[in-house]
Amino acid sequence: MADAATVSNGKTALTDDFRTHFSGSAPITEKAKSFARARPWTSAAFLGIAAMAVLNAVRGARR
Question: Are 50 and 63 in contact (CB under 8 A)?
């Protein structure tokens, strides 16, 4: 029988991937690259949200 911590469902699959790719002592750039390879659409969405936040912050700073 599988351990409850290793069983994943649709709601925790992204959390499981975060734990898998961002744990350990590797540099953060390597962790981000491995996550982007595993989940390209999620990575693109996070990058788009970060870009919108930066643009809004820059736009607000000019006022």
Answer: no
Q: How far apart are CA 17 and CA 8, in angstroms?
A: 10
- The three-state DSSP-derived secondary structure of the chain is CCCCCCCCCCCCHHHHHHHHHHCCCCCHHHHHHHHHHHCHHHHHHHHHHHHHHHHHHHHHHCC
Query: Which amino acid appears at position 43 of this protein?
Result: S
pLDDT digit string (tens) for 8-49? 555 677 778 777 878 888 888 888 888 888 889 988 999 999
